[in-house]
Amino acid sequence: MKTSSLAALTTFLLFALITTNPSVVDALVLDTEGNPVEWHRNYYVLPFVWGPLGGGLTLGSHNNSICPLYVTQEPSDLSNGLTVAFSPRISRLPFVTSSAELSIKTTGSVTTCQVEACP
Prior knowledge:
The chain is built from one helix and five strands. It is α+β, with helices and mostly antiparallel strands. 4% of the residues are buried.
């Protein structure tokens, strides 16, 4: 009787710990070489499968408009696009995790749009 009660209590406490503390089951985000992705380092965001579907992320227009620019994919798989860096909102870990709240910033040079004043 005591063994089943102890097992039930242990199971309940383990479940409570996992559901209230997501960092227990949080996974590291890995780069293409299997290394943990680090905060504030430059990375290319590339397709999982290389081929004619395109390359990395860049900025481009939408529906033939000049501005604003949107995040798009390079049409050629030979282009890596712009680099990005991840910044934590709140993190004590040196690496990006799968549930981390973060900001993503392009680190390459970007052409800006100039919006003309309306008459």
